C-alpha cells in the first residue's frame, strides 16, 4: 500500500497493490482515518493494481465508504470490480463512462 501526496486540486491517493486481506484491511483503515483527519478534499482509493480482495477487504471498503464521504474509489481493476459488483458495492457502469455507440 502506497500513499501518494495530493496533486493539483485532487486530494491524497492511497494506492492498493496486489491484494486486500485481513492484515492490509487494518492498515488501510488506519491510513484512511489519518488522511481524513488532515484532508478535507477527496481521498482517492486507487485500485488499479489490486488483483484480489478478501471478504474482510470488501467489508472494510464498504465501511470506509460509508464512514468517509470524501473517499472515492478510482481505477478499479476488472477482477475486483466484478466482485464488488456482485456484492452491490460497485455500479455496473460508472457514471463517468461514456455510453457505447
TrEMBL record:
UniProt domain STAS: residue ranges: 14-101
Pfam families (UniProt xref): STAS
Protein name in the entry: STAS domain-containing protein
Organism this protein belongs to: Thalassomonas viridans
Lineage: Bacteria, Pseudomonadati, Pseudomonadota, Gammaproteobacteria, Alteromonadales
Amino acid at each position: 500500500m502506497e500513499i501518494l501526496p495530493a496533486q493539483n486540486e485532487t486530494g491524497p491517493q492511497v494506492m492498493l497493490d496486489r491484494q486486500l486481506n485481513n492484515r492490509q484491511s487494518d492498515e488501510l483503515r488506519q491510513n484512511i482515518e489519518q488522511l481524513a483527519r488532515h484532508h478535507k478534499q477527496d481521498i482517492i482509493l486507487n485500485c488499479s493494481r489490486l488483483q484480489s480482495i478478501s471478504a474482510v477487504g470488501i467489508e472494510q471498503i464498504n465501511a470506509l465508504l460509508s464512514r468517509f464521504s470524501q473517499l472515492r474509489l478510482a481505477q478499479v481493476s476488472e477482477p475486483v470490480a466484478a466482485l464488488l459488483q456482485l456484492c452491490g458495492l460497485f455500479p455496473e457502469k460508472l457514471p463517468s463512462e461514456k455510453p457505447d455507440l
